[in-house]
Design goal:
The structure is a homodimer. The first copy, chain A, is an alpha/beta fold. In chain A, 50% of the residues lie in helices and 16% in strands. A four-stranded parallel beta sheet of chain A has the order 2-1-3-4, sandwiched between helices. The first copy, chain A, starts with a strand and ends with a helix. At the A-B interface, helix 1 and helix 5 of A face helix 1 and helix 5 of B.
Chain lengths: 127, 127
């Protein structure tokens, strides 16, 4: 299973992407998407500890792909990755250099049909 | 004034982008952002007539920039542009080839400091 974590200052944006993905691929055992936008208490902003919790929640995934939108969302995801205790877990995590909506959507569709991490990243890089 | 229209299958996504932009730039006489995601009746999907209404609403803008995310959102925006009656208005409209969140955010920030359309599109193309 591939884990996908969506990071933005806006929870509406990440909730919307998760809904759009789930409408497209339905329930899939191959992919789990976590909406991790906003501060966690309803405000615009980001929260590294919330992202870290999402990473830990996905510890059983074969790979964890993180997608962010603008600068500080990316920085916050990097901080979360730095905070991972377990080197086995941190080795599974990739902060993907792609547009948030378009990249996460393409990755989830690829993951749902059981593509490898390399195939997913190749597809995403073509966006 | 530059008009920016956000198109996605998800209204949550476009509402979230509009909120994020307004948090960043505040009230600006130089830019007006319209969230035009979803079908207009709460479902996931797109609606060319709703996009056309947004274009007509922004008829007094100096330029109207439309940002969409995945394929059919782009197609729906193209259909809306084809449906514009007034050639003066259609000449103001640009469907921007850029990621939705990142492109619209960068464009709005540039527009808020009174950049020209060319300066905005140059900034967006560097994303």
């Amino acid at each position: 299973m591939i884990g996908i974590i969506l990071v933005s200052h806006s929870q509406k944006i990440t909730d919307g992407i998760k809904e759009m993905i789930e409408e497209m691929i339905g329930e899939s055992p191959n992919v789990e998407v976590i909406s991790c936008g906003g501060t966690g208490d309803g405000r615009l902003g980001t929260n590294s500890l919330m992202i870290l919790d999402s990473i830990n929640y996905l510890a059983n995934a074969s790979h964890i792909l993180i997608f962010g939108d603008i600068g500080s969302a990316i920085l916050c995801a990097e901080t979360a990755i730095d905070l991972i205790d377990d080197p086995n877990l941190s080795g599974k995590v990739t902060l993907v250099d792609s547009p948030l909506v378009e990249g996460a959507f393409a990755a989830a569709v690829q993951a749902s049909v059981n593509c490898t991490k390399e195939e997913i990243l190749k597809e995403v890089s073509s966006i």
